[in-house]
Structures are given as structure tokens and as C-alpha cells.
Amino acid sequence: MITRAEALAMDNADQLAQKAAEFILPEGVIYLDGNSLGVMPKAAIVRVKHAVEVEWGQDLITSWNKHGWFQAPLKMGDKIARLIGAEPGSVVVADSISINVFKVLSAALAKNPTRKVILSDTGNFPSDLYVAQGLAQFMNDGHVLRAVAPEQVLNAIGDDVAVVMITEVDYRSAQRHDMKAITSKAHAHGALVICDLAHSAGAVPGLLMDADIDFAIGCTYKYLNGGPGSPAFVFVHPRLQNETMPALVGWWGHAKPFAFEGQFTGAAGITKYQCGTQPILSMQALDAALDVWADVDMDVVYAKAQKQCAMFTELAEARCGRHGIKLFGSRDFSKRGSHVCLEHEQSYAVMQALISRKLIGDFRAPNLMRFGFTPLYVSYTDVYDAVEILADVLDNRIWDNPKFLAQNAVT
Amino acid sequence: MITRAEALAMDNADQLAQKAAEFILPEGVIYLDGNSLGVMPKAAIVRVKHAVEVEWGQDLITSWNKHGWFQAPLKMGDKIARLIGAEPGSVVVADSISINVFKVLSAALAKNPTRKVILSDTGNFPSDLYVAQGLAQFMNDGHVLRAVAPEQVLNAIGDDVAVVMITEVDYRSAQRHDMKAITSKAHAHGALVICDLAHSAGAVPGLLMDADIDFAIGCTYKYLNGGPGSPAFVFVHPRLQNETMPALVGWWGHAKPFAFEGQFTGAAGITKYQCGTQPILSMQALDAALDVWADVDMDVVYAKAQKQCAMFTELAEARCGRHGIKLFGSRDFSKRGSHVCLEHEQSYAVMQALISRKLIGDFRAPNLMRFGFTPLYVSYTDVYDAVEILADVLDNRIWDNPKFLAQNAVT
């Protein structure tokens, strides 16, 4: 089993180790929840202060041109494109991920009008399934969501499927779907493919063009560290941008928004997948966060995350197996994203105890503790120390002592 | 004609005059564009700094509970409710205004399924019309947008109309539609009513419950001063909240979002009209901005705005009429919102010249200069001085001198 000295040696040899200095890391905290809300890049403080005091406070309405507010969604889309394997001009930052699911799903269904089945899997993030259910119910013409078990997706692709909607990395099991195989079979059967990159962007190497994916959406406040609720992104394959139309459109997607014409004419390219005005303060924080990635190689990031996930799992099983701790999902770390879920019958209480000890992860119903590994600012010694805390909490049943929890609440 | 001394005397007697001290007003600027982007409340600087450095930077994921991120959309909705004549619990802050138009329009059409006509007017803000066109095109079952002249709306309400969709205050003419008359006739004919309050919230007294309006949406970055692109709001009449379902739903509208159930079950009340995660930094700025309104009486605000609009128009016509300056829209200031559009054949160039002289308004195609009057921070002397600048620019044809414009560009 790995020792702390060995973990430290790995940190000393880690080419990403110096990236942590670009972030604010709360004192004494081991933060393994960057898969839910990424930590703050130092540059974001400076950028938001400027956006508030100079751009909004002083330059006001003139900032739309002067400080590039108009151009931000596409410019930021290009910064993300490199990380997710997309071409420049095919990604735009806008709205929330659920809203972007709705845009691309409605566009895909309109493009494939003779078919009624939206194929997804039961491990998909529930909000994606809700969007599909809500849209199908509204259409009220036989459209239906068919959610099969994750391992059944490939088999379930048939000639009745309009669109296959899959989150590449499962938010609980961390399983990576084989998007190349899924897309290839979907296209052979005349179906379109939507890929949700919520737990992929900034975590695993990009694959959109390589896998020939039609539509994608993703999140910027997790691995990309854009700040709480920072706007999401949407990708449409270049061959489909001018051939598709979402049900949800607005003036930011118009060919000439400031002509204030009475008739909607969609802009060329990905622009049409914008709708209304974006929250600029949150946008500027995200823009600063994206610049942190400019010199980062996603293969290097993913390789480190895989090592950290494996190391955490092995240590946790060895140290805590006797307390019923068990890995949720596959043990093949080459086919996983960058988080680990551990099963334990008292996961909620144990996670509260871990948080009181300044090890931050999250609870996912019904019985999972989830830990995210974000190689830009999590070290190998963090991984080692996290398991020490987990072991201590379990060995001493700290989760079972309300008084201790109350005394140690994070303040 | 009013003199500057008289304007100053009006300021001295103005019960709203001290409110300006709660805002950052750029030095030397007369800002008549608060109808497009409101100026920054001082409290917003403090709040955003806290949201960045403490909430995101230090408390990270725990802030969802610790700093009330989860509760913010409904809590802020209640602050807005008072200003727009709605009941507590019937307004939620989320997403952009165009997206909220889509939510309520889809809900209204689903509630009134046997009718195909969306009635609006050609003076409505184009994005609202685009949303209706996009949705109708997607539905592809005979639904159609019928946009009549603003003065024809009441006459056009018939038994084929599913929903009447009107922006209360026209973004160019500033005309206030008679929402009571429209809603009364619409309901008599079995149609539902959507009211866009983009240029009403924080400008004119609230009327939603009083006029019995079914759905409303509105903007927070104009008169409410929430900051650039701050999230919009949506209102659903209490009688319809549990009886309607938007086409666009997501996990934030689920009855139990953190149960991560596979099936969408809409939350009770207005909560269902949320979809995904909101941009927290922009939300916190807006929350601080809304607190500025806590002691404000909308009747007092509107009375001052009406006086300012009338005063500006009379002075501008008297001083600049010989240059072809003309009021756009009705002269009855009791039936108008809080901005004034002036027609001039060189409006774009003249507005550029005004901006170079630090009088900020905006240009609206094809030939309008628009000036907004925001009584919380615009004084009567501002109004007087603005006309002085306009007269000077026109008298000296400053708009016709590119060299002057270049030298005086706002930097």
C-alpha cells in the first residue's frame, strides 16, 4: 500500500503541481468536491472586481462594446472548444445546462420528425431526463423517453430512435460511456446523438469531433471552476448548425438583433443557440477561470485524475473495508471519469462528519459518498490525507455522535 | 418654460432625492439609460465581494445552505412581488426574460389546447415575438403568432385566441397598454394573458393581481438595477400555479430535487417555473439591488418619472424643435412608462455625439433616440442639463463632425 512519503514524492514529480498556486484553497480544507463546485481561481477575484467597479459601475451601458460583453459568449465558447475536442466557432456559453439540453433536444427531434423515441439511460443525471419528459409531455404526439440501464444503451439503439441522449460520465458511478461506439451505431440507424459533458469538460480528454457527436452541452462550474452557477455551454456539430433550429429562440440568436425586426431569422453558425442576455458578472468570472486552462493538456490532467481515483479507492478499501466501505461502479479506471463514489449504509451522516473534519465531498442518494479529483489543485498527499480522515471518522464512529458534529461544524 | 433654478427647487423638495446617495453615479455623466442597464447600488459592490471571496472562495459548496443560495430565487421573487402587485410566493427569479417568455407561453398554450392563436402587437419587444414564432414553428400544428398594431389589440381579442401576450410598456413609444381592459376581455373570450413587465418593474406601479393577469415575466437589470444581465423573473397567478406545466422543466422545479428520482414531479407553487442552477454572483448583486427598494413607494417613483418625462419632452421640443426633434408616441404622460423616444433623421449620429458629451441614452432603429428616467438617481436638474447638451449638439451640428466625435469618445 502507498505511503504518505510516496504520495509526497509523486507530488514533487507532478508537472501539474504548480497549478494549485493559481487558485484560492481554503486553509486546512481538503476539497474533493470540485466535481460539484470548482474552487476559485485567483484571477476571478480581480476580474469580477473589475466587472463590478469599472464595467458596470463606471462604463455602464457602453461596456457592451467597450468591455466585450457582446462577444463574450462566443469567445468563451472557443476557449472551451479546445478542451472538449470541438472546433472553434462551434461552442457558445449561455444559460443553464438543463436549458441547453432543451435547446438541442428540441432541435434534434425537429430534425428527425418521423421518430418518437428519445433513448437515454437510468444513470443519466435526472434533470436531463426531466427535460426530455417535459418536452415529450408538451409535444403530446407520442414522443417518449426510453431510459434503459446504462449497459443496455448500445443494444437499445434501433430504427425507432430519434435521438440518443447520454451523459458521458455518470454522475454517480463515474462510468464513461463509449461515445464513439454509441454515435457510430446511432448514426447507422439514423439517430442523432446528444452528449452531456457535465462531468467531462475539464476532466477527461475531449472527443466531440473525433466521436462525430451531433450535439453536446456541459457545465462550467464543476471542473472548469467558473464559479457558482456560472453559465453552461452548448455545442452543435458544424454540419448541423445551419440545418437545425431549437424550439427556444430569442434575440441573441437573431441574424441582426439590433435591427429589431418583427420576424425571427436565425443567425448563422452556433450563434442561434443563444437566446437572451447572459449574467455578465458570472460570465466574467468564468472567462478568467477559463484562462487558467490555456496551458493545460487534458491528457495530463486525466492521467493524474485516474491515478488519484485508483489510489483513493485502494487506500479506502484497505483502510475502511471492514466498515462496509465499497466502491460503487466499475473498477476499470481507464473507463471512468474523475470522481469516486463509495457506498456505505450511513453515507449521509458519515459525509457530515467528514465535512466537520474539513474533508469536503458530497452525499448522493441513497447511500453514496462522492469524492471528486481535480488535478489542477488536488495533490496526491491530499488523497492520502483524505483517506486518513475517512478512516478516523469510521474507526471512531464520529458520524454517530451528534455532539461532536455540532461542535465541529464548519463555520 | 421651466428654468434651471426651478428644476433645482424641485430637487430640493423631492422626497426621493436622497436615494441617489445609495448608488455609484459616474462623475460628470448624466445617465438616461437606466431603462437599459440600471446604475450600480453601492451595496452591490459589498455583496459581490462577499459572494466571491467568502461564499465561493472559502465556503465553497457549503454555501448552498450556509449563504442561502438555494433559497435565493424565491426570496428575491418575494422582494419583487411587492413592486409589481403580486402576492408573496408567486414570483421566482430565474434565467433570462426570453426563456421565461417561453416557459409561460408554452404553459399557457398547453392549458388552452384547442386554440391556435397567440395574439401580440407589432410594438412588442422583438425577442418576445421571436419566442412565439420559434415555439409555433416547433409545434408545427397550426399555432400562429398574430401581431396586430398596438392600438388594435383589444379589438383583435376573439374566441380563437389562446393567449394574449403583451409588453405593458412599449420599449419605443413607452405607451402603457390598458392591461385591465385587455385581461378582462381576454378572460371573457376564454384566452389567457401574459404580461411582459420589462419596462414596468421598478418604473410603474404594480398591477398583476389587480388586473387579474395570468402570467408575467420581467427584467431586473433595467429599473431594478440588478447589474448587467442579472436574472429575470417569472410570475404565475396563484390559481394557475398547480394547474399549468411549462414545456421547459428541470431539477430545480422538481418536488424533491435531491432525491434524484427518475421521474419528473413538479413542485407545488411557482417553484416549478425554475429549471436549472442560477448564476450566483449575478444573483447576489441583484439581491443587494432589490434591498434598495424596501422603503420605496412605486406611486411616488412613477409620479416623479412622469414629471421628468413631460419636462424633458417640453424642453426638448422648445429648444430643439427647429432641428426636427419630435416626440415618438403619445403625449398623454399618464398612459406612458418612464422613457421618452425622440425622432430625428440622424438619431444614431446625434446619440453618438451626446454620449461623447457624457449624456448617455441609446439609439433604437430606425430613427429614435431613447432617454430613460429613473427617479431613484436622476434629478430634475439632470433633466434640464440633458436638454442643454442636446440643444448644444444640435445647434452646433456636433453630430456631423467626425473629428470632434473621435476626440470626445468616452474612454
Give structural notes.
- With 411 residues, the first copy, chain A, is α/β, with parallel strands linked by helices.
- The first copy, chain A, has 14 helices and 15 strands.
- In chain A, strands 4-10-9-8-7-5-6 form a seven-stranded mixed sheet, with helices on both faces. A four-stranded antiparallel sheet of chain A has the order 11-12-15-14. The first copy, chain A, has a two-stranded antiparallel sheet with strand order 1-3.
- In chain A, helix 1 packs antiparallel against helix 13, helix 4 packs parallel to helix 10 (280-291) and helix 5 (97-111) packs across helix 6 (126-139).
- The longest helix of chain A has 23 residues, at 298-320.
- The two termini of chain A are 35 Å apart.
- At the A-B interface, helix 2, helix 5, helix 6 and helix 10 of A face helix 2, helix 5, helix 6 and helix 10 of B.
How are the secondary structure elements laid out?
The structure is a homodimer of 411-residue chains.
Chain A (H helix, E strand, L loop, with lengths): L3 H9 L10 E2 L5 E2 L8 E2 H18 L3 H4 L5 H13 L6 E3 L3 H15 L5 E5 L4 H14 L4 E5 L4 H4 L4 E7 L11 H10 L3 E5 L18 E4 L14 E4 L1 H4 L38 H12 L6 H23 L5 E3 L10 E5 L3 H10 L2 E2 L1 E3 L3 E5 L7 H16 L6 H6 L4
Parallel strand pairs in A: 2-13, 5-6, 5-7, 7-8, 8-9
Antiparallel strand pairs in A: 1-3, 4-10, 9-10, 11-12, 12-15, 14-15
Helix pairs in contact in A: 1-13, 2-10, 4-10, 5-6, 11-13
